[in-house]
Amino acid sequence: MRVPLLDLKPQYEQIRAEVEPALLEVCRSQAFILGPKVESCERAVADYCGATFGVGVTSGSDALLLALMAEDIGPGDEVITTPYTFFATVGAISRVGSKPVFVDIDPVTYNLDVSQLEAAVTPRTKAIIPVHLYGQMADMDGVMAVARKHNLIVIEDAAQAIGSEWKGRRAGSIGDYGCFSFFPSKNLGCFGDGGMMTLQDTEKTRKTVILRNHGSDPKYYHHLIGGNFRLDVLQAVVVEIKLKYLDGWTAARQANAARYGRLFGATSLLSEERVSLPEAGDDRHIYNQYVIRAERRDELMAHLRENDVGCEIYYPVPLHLQACFKDLGHQPGDFPESEKAASETLALPIYPDLTDDMAARVVEVIENFYR
Ligand SMILES: *Cc1c(COP(=O)(O)O)cnc(C)c1O
């Protein structure tokens, strides 16, 4: 039995009757840029996230970049984040000319270890970017306490966390900016690239909206230098339709995680400490990824792939050790928990349409490997 890491075709069948005519309608209207369909998507996503405003953008990466631009963060400034994240988080910090300052992760949640956060603050620090990795929120009480004390902007990288909750509050509703991605592999994916920013402040939203469209305000008059960061109408239409299904898909991912818990629990792999499973805690985890730690991880990955079970490493090289950031002067050992996670973790299939048989097959193949 082949078990892919992700298969979006069954999901497409579920929404096809609704999406195809809606896309055709856009084609026939020939209205592709901004306008009421993008605005209605923005309203729907902001409401879903418990945020005040939504601004549709080209991607999650551009959402991060635009948030930093809206705060005039640039050369001479520092932005604190985690080295154990997707490249875009740190890429955005460097692209505006500011310096990424890393804080190691908590080994259980893989998110910023807030107990180390304050030590990283300097007079040059302007912002903190907590990343809600794999669909589980960072300790936002800890992040907000340090941010308030030192007057820092908080930009939530919520690309993997649409609908995730921290003490009942959703990702993108706590910080100054929430940055979401509609890349197809995210829990709410569009048909290409797309993203959304959520905000709570009217002035910040106004500036973000202007920067999204070249800084033009009014049209052809520029006080700011922005860019083309617009979410297009075709993607907005897909996102708004899919949003209605999102809670059902999230429940299916959570059920798959619970099922893995039962299946692994019935083996001796946990007691022998061959593998350890993610711990969700009390907050709403949306399982964008289901990531285990595994003994002999690389060999296990090869074995799974030989047996047609999809799996992936998110992420094999922590960002402080990437060649492009060598000027930051970091070395192996600087962020030990991030480095350990990069060498021990493995993502298993968790997508909503994963069947009982498929999940059982994944665990069987892992069990065979350690026998
Ligand atoms: C996917 C992702 C991004 C970037 O989103 P894109 O839409 O692909 O640009 C940023 N941060 C994290 C943590 C992500 O997972």
List keywords for this structure.
3-stranded antiparallel β-sheet; 371 residues; 2 domains; Aspartate Aminotransferase, domain 1; 7-stranded mixed β-sheet; 13% strand; 38% helix; Aspartate Aminotransferase, domain 2; alpha/beta; 11 helices; 12 strands; binds pyridoxal-5'-phosphate; single chain
Total of domains: 2
CATH fold assignment of the largest domain: Aspartate Aminotransferase, domain 2
Overall body shape = globular
Number of helices: 11
- List the uncertain runs: none
Largest sheet: 7 strands, mixed
Q: What is the helix fraction of residues, given as a range?
A: 25-40%
What would you report as the Rg, rounded to the nearest angstrom? 21 Å
Task: Give the H and E element order.
Answer: HHEHEHEEHEEEEEHHHEEHHEH
Bound molecules: pyridoxal-5'-phosphate
The CATH architecture name of the largest domain reads 3-Layer(aba) Sandwich
Explained architecture:
With 371 residues, the protein is an alpha/beta fold. It is built from eleven helices and twelve strands. The strands form three sheets. A seven-stranded mixed sheet has the order 1-9-8-5-4-2-3, sandwiched between helices. The protein is globular. The site of pyridoxal-5'-phosphate has 15 residues, from helix 3 and helix 4. Pyridoxal-5'-phosphate is lined by residues 59-61, 85-86, 88-89, 131, 157, 159-160, 181, 183, 193, 195.
